[in-house]
Amino acid sequence: MKFPVRAFLGAAVVGAATALLTLQPALAADGKLALKEEPRPSNIRLQETEMGVVYADSRGMTLYTDRNDPKDFVPACTEKSNESRGEATEPHPDHPVANPPNCLTKHLPVDVGDGKPVGAWTVFERSPGVKQWAYRGHPVYTSVKDIAPGQSWNSLEPGLRQYRKRWLTVFAPLDLPPDIILQTVGAARVFATYSNHTLYTLTQDRPGKSTCEDACVKKWQPFLGGEMSQPRGEWTLATRADKTRQWVFRGKPLYTFAGDRKNGDVKGNNLPGSQVAVAYAAPTPPSFMTIQTTPAGDLYADDKGKTLYAFICPSESDCDDVTDKSHWWFVDCGNSPEKCTRQWLPVLAAPGAKATGNTWTIVNMPRPWSPVRAAENSAEPSVRVWAQNGRPLFTYVYEDRPGMIDGMDTGTFTGPRWFGVMATGGNLNAKGPTTQAAR
């Protein structure tokens, strides 16, 4: 089965900002990638998102698994696990909290209905008479962050590299050889070796034939198949002059870059004559945004170069979902809502501005604003604000020149914090990107 894909990225420059991954024409005539044929229940469907094809419920809402599950069929997400440690435990004078939500109010178990177990899909009974789908042993959920089919707002945390990501998108597996995986770099998903080294192509190569020899291979190392490696669909093996076999995708020989030292590095990006092998391109941001090189990596900025920030709750401390009234927001500003609204300025959408897709959207944010979007069809006063993955974007008032990151990582010691929104490029944070093998 094939779905559309933005197939390979190369180098470009945005203003005075750093070079980043940008779209190149697909290397196949149809520009599609094949999915691995895998049986699924009748009420589970395939849904295309900007980060790839995912499994979804009957409404098209993206499915997620919980990385915190202690073992198969034992959920960490229950009605007793509080997902809102960032909420005030007592009513706050500005934002009263009644009945703080638990994990199951934020992550909704996917009901089995009339579906029957098949393949990797089994039935999990989370309580007597209450059944839920499990994929490869992990109970699956939808997220209140997603409000329409095609959204996968729980799949990417902007700038959140130092925290262990809890909720994993259930991607439909691609038909890949065992030697190849996908990993997430910024907001793009790229092909990589099973040991997490980014793969590249060279423009000097001829179709199905590598011209990289001698000194070239010291910089660009051919990605070789093993003794048992076999061609698979559009993935083939070309015999080199030394009789080794090099992996080829759509006629393009594949390489790793000698300068990539750790998992997820893309330091070979931007070098003349090379392209990162990308399965799904980073969604195109609104036209007013720029990208700035900062000590924290390549970050999105507004048209004046001011860094864009999102308020994020790490791990199981959810306080950034729709309608959340986060006490941490006020704690960070010295318990002064007025100070908060002077310190963090929302990125207002111009009249008539429209979303560029499902990643970069415009949301309504309550006034006086808090760093979460308003409920759908809410009548409360609000402003239209640009958002990434449903999170409203802000600038920090104390930054007065491009590239400043004074607002980065501010917040409470172990709770929610402000993070610059990472761009896809070669200068990534030390921790590297989140990695997910195609399963």
Word description of this protein:
Strands 7, 8, 9, 10, 11 and 12 form a six-stranded antiparallel sheet that branches. A three-stranded antiparallel sheet has the order 13-14-22, with no helix packed on it. It is globular. It is built from four helices and 31 strands. A hairpin with a 2-residue loop joins strand 5 (45-49) and strand 6 (52-56). It starts with a strand and ends in a 19-residue tail after the last strand. Among the domains are: 2-32 and 173-280, no CATH class; 290-420, no CATH class. Residues 2-29, 83-98, 158-162 and 425-439 have low confidence and may be disordered. The longest helix has 7 residues, at 337-343. Helix content is 5%, strand content 31%. The chain is mostly beta strands.
- Quote the beta fraction: 25-35%
Number of DSSP strand runs: 31
Termini gap: 16 Å
Principal-axes shape call: globular
Low-confidence stretches: 2-29, 83-98, 158-162, 425-439
Main sheet attributes: strand count, strand direction, barrel closure: 6 strands, antiparallel
Helical proportion, percent range:
under 10%
Radius of gyration, whole Å: 23 Å
Please state the average pLDDT score. Answer: 80
Number of helical segments? 4
Return the structural class. Answer: mainly beta
